[in-house]
Design a protein that fits this description.
Largest sheet: 2 strands, antiparallel
Helix content: 55-70%
Radius of gyration: 15 Å
Number of helices: 8
Number of domains: 1
Strand order of the largest sheet: 1-2
Strand content: under 5%
Oligomer: single chain
Number of strands: 2
Order of helices and strands: HHEEHHHHHH
Shape: globular
């Protein structure tokens, strides 16, 4: 899901939102959202079992789908899932993507500043956490993050 979401965001950023392939990618991303909300790393079911949603790909897909219409209601349910999934137990990188996806839909949770601060403290103990810390900074910026602004600017 993540590569498709990033490519969709890139195509939209280059003014190709109405392109046939971009429209196909948007349909694919919505189709791969679980009916109950959220997504995982690919299909919605394997061997007859519905897969569980994961926070990071759900947040990234929501960033790519900013402003998109969804008569199935899966986007709205995914935003609800992400709101519920943002807890102190959420890994810092997943939390950052979740908050960015929510911000792209103007749904930043009230507890976001506290969650970001706690996640940053977790990453401060690691020497290889620069990427995650950068994502947390973007998440802290919320709707003012260049990533969210890009997603919203490319929305229909």
């Amino acid at each position: 899901m993540e590569p498709s979401a990033f490519f969709t965001l890139a195509l939209k950023a280059h003014g190709l939102r109405e392109n046939k392939r971009t429209q196909e990618a948007i349909r694919l991303l919505i189709d791969r959202l679980l009916k109950e909300g959220g997504c995982n790393y690919g299909n919605t079911a394997v061997l007859g079992q519905t897969l569980r949603p994961h926070v990071q790909p759900s947040g990234i897909v929501m960033l790519a789908l900013a402003g998109e219409a969804d008569p199935s209601g899966r986007i709205s349910k995914t935003l609800d899932y992400l709101t519920q999934a943002c807890t102190k137990e959420t890994t810092p990188q997943s939390l950052a993507w979740a908050l960015l996806g929510l911000a792209a839909h103007d749904r930043t949770p009230e507890q976001a500043p506290e969650l970001i601060a706690a996640a940053y403290e977790t990453t401060a103990k690691r020497s290889n956490a620069l990427f995650t810390q950068t994502l947390l900074v973007h998440a802290a910026l919320g709707k003012n993050s260049p990533l969210v602004q890009l997603a919203k600017a490319t929305a229909p």
